[in-house]
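Example record

The entry below shows one chain as it appears in the dataset: sequence first, then structure tokens.
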Amino acid sequence: MTSCDILLVIGTFRSAVPMLSLIRHLSSKHVIGVKFLEQDEKAMHKTGGAQLMFQDLCTQFGAKILAQDEDVETRFVLVQQFPYPASFAAAIHDHTKAEHVWGMLTLAWAGIEVQDAFMDQFDIKHLVVPDKRFASFLIERRGAQLRYAERVLDEVGLPFKEYPIFPEFAADWIIAAPTLFSFHTEAGKQSFLRDVLKLLSQIPKTDIVAYKAHNGNQRDYFTPRAYYAIARLFAFVPKAEAFFGFLADHLPAKLAKHCERIVTGILHRRLFARACPMASLTDYGDMAIEAFLPNVRKGIIGGLSNTIWASLFFGLPYYNCVDAEDRTGESELLKRDSSSLLDTNLEYFGVPYCHGDLAQGAKNPEILHSKERHDNLVDLFLRELEV
């Protein structure tokens, strides 16, 4: 039987990055084991490279990777919030002898039934959460109070400032590419990119600006590869944007959409005349953006995403380049409804549209200085392991 101080149970790398802080900063004194849910083919195709990178980092930082059917005796189990298959949860239960089983809520999934199922699967009564007030807001909004009634929530924020994972990274700005939930039309994507370009024109040329694609995805949400290849040829040709825009306005819809995408590609390509890909600054650019934010000196440029909360948490001004007027009506880009997900989150931590003006970065002292937060995740476990 393997003996551990902490056993981490992980469904996906995306929201598990705080666990890397635990491993990096506690593994020299405490034994930390990790059991991973095996990723399905769809997940591996989408973000498989980033998932494998995360697993390698766990090993590099000192964790032991364990098979799900390996017998383990441990003081603590910390389970990432994730919709685990019943067979995986049963295997963890049957092969683990633990004094305490805790859960780690992601920022914005509290109250969603399928995401909350892990609490009963692993018999979790104690939860750590980045923002307790936000979690309570979501739990009430989603009518999940009964599921949480007998459970303790500890607010821990994010540990990356006190316990960094990638201390070598440094940039003045990060452009955080949002998902398509930020946009309802191709024109909305173009408006976003034009505002980003406006901001870049106001930033000193000596500043380092990194562009981060969303969460390790193998493709970018803005421009499919075929259109980006065409856009590269025209990005800096005078009046090319206006030409393709004219065609988009006057051609039949089936042809116009291709011209619209080329316009988006031209604008997107222009960003890289000023910004550099995250991969040029760090080998770990596919990891969650939150881990890099303490090393950003000036601000975050982005759209409507949970990155807003993390930026505000670390006291960085956030430049929201999505105009709410561009999101009216049904989305032409996604069939999924964002009203119960992203739109609900924005009621809590949304920030105003910046109009492409460097003077309009947003902050939120209530998130930065939460009265509910006492320990970060690493300090909490340091204290508990000493008991």
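Notes for this example: The chain has 14 helices and twelve strands. The mean pLDDT is 92.
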